[in-house]
Amino acid sequence: xxxxxxxxxxxxxxxxxxxxxxxxxxxxxxxxxxxxxxxxxxxxxxxxxxxxxxxxxxxxxxxxxxxxxxxxxxxxxxxxxxxxxxxxxxxxxxxxxxxxxxxxxxxxxxxxxxxxxxxxxxxxxxxxxxxxxxxxxxxxxxxxxxxxxxxxxxxxxxxxxxxxxxxxxxxxxxxxxxxxxxxxxxxxxxxxxxxxxxxxxxxxxxxxxxxxxxxxxxxxxxxxxxxxxxxxxxxxxxxxxxxxxxxxxxxxxxxxxxxxxxxxxxxxxxxxxxxxxxxxxxxxxxxxxxxxxxxxxxxxxxxxxxxxxxxxxxxxxxxxxxxxxxxxxxxxxxxxxxxxxxxxxxxxxxxxxxxxxxxxxxxxxxxxxxxxxxxxxxxxxxxxxxxxxxxxxxxxxxxxxxxxxxxxxxxxxxxxxxxxxxxxx
Length: 425
Fold this sequence. Notes:
about 425 residues; alpha/beta; Aspartate Aminotransferase, domain 2; 7-stranded mixed sheet; 14 strands; about 15% strand
């Protein structure tokens, strides 16, 4: 009789406790300060962090709509009139209203598309759209620095997935050649995905050049314009408008979470395509409809996007001033051609944390920090998000602070502080 063989079984929770992930490993030391920080007070250019007032460069409230008096009034009135429950159920079953339809129609008109469909959240909406548009015979080709929502949507795809070097047209073309070979005889097609404005570097996707490749290769184009909608283009209709190729974007996506300072998102394109998404995106078919106060509030936000161009003008005035003064002071802001303002420095993760603490505690500056593995080892990225609410005093104070922390970093001050905290100035 053969001896019974036993196989050790792993406990999922034991594995989780042993490996908390690239960010989770810092939970005990960083939570509440570097990760999950608590900014308090009215959403504005100045907020409160750990009991101190800081100049806030870390919130995507681009046009300053979060606490605009007309927005606050519209939000409050909609909540009073409708409550947060209405409408109940998914839109397909019992959660549709004339106001949802109105918002979709106005969004489609604003971005120059035949039809639009609302989604409850941007992240969820992008993933669901990718999943719905593709079948196993299709090939998806996407930019290497695409947002996590795109990456996660692509992961769901059961067919071939090809990635091209960031904004590299030669790399894209090579992958288009490969993609079209892969779909030969399969009945499949090719979908290219890029962003309008990349949220870390701040550079625009090369939409004009990508669209030109349609003359050589058959493919459809999906653009995630989360950071471009409301901030670029003559009317604020986004990166496609800015580059003169909005008509060539097959599926246009934007979120309400940035320039509109709200919740929700939308996809827009030809009627047949958007209707297909409307009837096939499982994350929307089986989810409760967007609550009425958000729909009414987003209608008001869209109205202000269209009728108050001075908000976008002020945003760009602040952005260009901040970026010029940073470069004049010798800082590397990369290739940004949007309002997103990255500042690149050289240093370790440990130096970065000390530098950010210095900024927040001693200079009253709150901005986001990005380190390895998001960017290469030895690099530090401090990302600043200007808004229409910032002013020249905010910028001047920030430049003074950056000059001081840049000098300290170069002189090894933050390394010394790590070894001997008593040396902290």
